[in-house]
Amino acid sequence: MVRRAPHYRLFERFRSVSEASVEEADAHVRRARIFFLQRYDRTAEQAR
Predict the structure, then answer these.
(1) Per-residue pLDDT for the chain (48 aa), expressed as one digit of tens each?
(2) Cα separation, 41 vs 48, whole angstroms
(3) Of the four, 11, 14, 39, 48, which is 20 to 30 A from 5 by CA?
(4) Residues whose CB falls within 8 Å of the CB of residue 30, separated by 6 or more in sequence, listed in order
C-alpha cells in the first residue's frame, strides 16, 4: 500500500464537499475562512 501525502486526505475532503450541494460547500468555505481569520487574529495579537 502506497503511503499517501498528508494533504491528500484534505484534498479528498474538499472533493467530497465540492460534490455536495452548492450551499453546503459555501457554508464549509465560510466556516473555514472564519476559523483561519480567528487563528490569524490570535497570532497577530500575540506578536504585538
Answers:
(1) 556 566 666 667 666 655 667 777 788 888 888 888 888 887 777 766
(2) 11
(3) 39
(4) none
Report the pLDDT value the prediction gives residue 20, as an integer from 0 to 100: 61
Between 6-19 and 22-47, two packed helices, what is the crossing angle to 10 degrees? 140
* Residue 18 near residue 25 (C-beta atoms within 8 A): yes
> How is residue 31 written as a grid cell?
466556516
In 1-48, alpha helices (H): 6-19, 22-47
